[in-house]
Specification:
Blueprint lengths: L1 H27 L12 H29 L3
Helix pairs in contact: 1-2
């Protein structure tokens, strides 16, 4: 179980570090907003994908902790 826990915790850490930084870059992209400042589909789609990645990071974190605790 220890290798599984390590992989899950590394996955959670990677996603928690990378995706928020990526969102900052996407939000600054000229395609993120139209001429009125309204969010475009480009920004909305990326926001949804990043949110899903962060939810999966949370699930990985919880599963990694469970694996370490011997619950799995």
């Amino acid at each position: 179980m220890l290798p599984l826990a390590v992989v899950l915790l590394l996955n959670a850490a990677f996603n928690a570090l990378v995706w928020p930084q990526f969102y900052k870059r996407v939000a600054k992209d000229p395609r993120a907003r139209d001429e009125n400042g309204k969010a475009t589909a480009f920004l909305k789609v990326h926001a949804v994908l990043i949110a899903i990645a962060l939810v999966l990071a949370l699930v990985s974190l919880l599963a990694g902790i469970a694996a370490l605790a011997g619950v799995l």
